[in-house]
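Hi V.,

You were right to ask for the full record rather than a summary. Here it is.
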Amino acid sequence: MPPLLSAVLIVHNEEAHLAACLTSIREIADEMIVRAVGPTAATVPIGKQSGARVAMRAFDDFGRQKQAALDMATGAWILSIDADEGVTPALAREIAEVIRGPHAADGYWLRRTMVYLGRRLRFGGAGSEWILRLARRERARFAPLPVHEHLIVDGRTGRLSGALDHIKYGSLREHVDTINRYTELAAGRKRDAGRHFSMTHVLRIPWEMFSRLILRLGILDGRAGVIHAAMASFYAFVQYAKLWREPE
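Predicted structure:
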């Protein structure tokens, strides 16, 4: 019989998290697809030891990379997951039940929680967000975006209550490196759309800080919440600052 659920993910320098991620879905996924970016040799043995199908692909953008992983899947359902995420036991039970049910929707939004610098965030816009990750394979595709790609589902969607844990950034160096990489892609997309840098974009820094720490109560997450809000504010500004070029 063809697999019922295929888990699909892309990996780039995520060998430290990959085994734990695959372990969290092993009981519910009949097929696990790992699309590795570039010659990351450690990915292949980790993936194969966990029972995944591993294929290498040169990186062009996130949307196409994830679509390539989806194209390898053969299950009736797909679960899109990142290497630094993990399915909690409660969510695993929900997924197993819903994909076998007679009245399932075409896709499901999952509640993702964040563990940042070793602390679980509860506020500030990062403590709990809803993301579309589970879908009938024939109804699903990824938006062809260079960054901030997302799953598109043709049909009815619902929500599951179990949590998807996001173990994000063990160090500030890792966060800074990610900001630099993602803002390059975001700035390129804005540049292609004809956007330009404006001095008013500097206002995104205080606004993001105020919004995350005060309006969304991120201050209640202590130092980790304050640092996360500051880094998010920096990201919001830098993606526009990179649109500016000094005259030669």
